[in-house]
Amino acid sequence: MRLRNKPWAKELIDAHPELIQVQPEHVADQFAQKQPVRLEIGTGKGQFIFKMAQLHPEINFLALEMQHSALAVLLKAQVDAQLPNLQLVVANAENLQALFAGWHFSEIYLNFSDPWPKTRHEKRRLTYSSFLTQYQQLLVPDGVVQLKTDNRHFFEYSLISMNQFGMQFQQLSLDLHHDDTTWAAANVPTEYEDKFSAKGQPIYGVRAVFHQAKG
Questions:
Q1: Annotated binding site
Q2: Does the pTM exceed 0.90?
Q3: How many domains does the chain fold into?
Q4: Where is the binding site for S-adenosyl-L-methionine, in residues?
Q5: Domain that holds residue 93
Q6: Which of the following is catalytic: 14, 29, 80, 114?
Q7: Residue 1 domain-assigned (yes or no)
């Protein structure tokens, strides 16, 4: 969902190159410590990743979002908080391997991604095989792809796509907010998640890893 343009967004982004980048070449240098890094693709306003960075100072978090107005909301919070383990990148996720050449993430988050429901747009879905290929290259061995969505069709599509790719499901939920699991207990919601859950809609989720070949 495209947000209404915020006139102050560009000025704020331009004023804080130490916190937000349009290309991630030098992002790693901005983190206070060298430690495991997790990536959220499609951060939106950043409620999820901001809270995760607060809860886990032992992990670095990278927020990727293509909408300047959305990411500027997170940047505004980060300017105040100055979390040393959170960096932001304004960019499109089409070619992640080029964007993050040399990076190795411990987890990749796909939170309430655009479901692109029309068949002709299938290749744009973030769980299409071409994206899964990129995640596999960017994740450390046993690295996790975590997906949450309110869209059952997109969730079912994602499970099929992941299964056909040979991924293994570590955890799976058809109603995350009412599950009695460690994932549910530790779950950090997104803005959309709060909105949909308040309406009584179930939140679907899966945590999956890529099959590791045995040598």
A1: 40, 65, 92, 114, 118, 150, 190-193
A2: yes
A3: 1
A4: 40, 65, 92, 114
A5: 35-209
A6: 114
A7: no
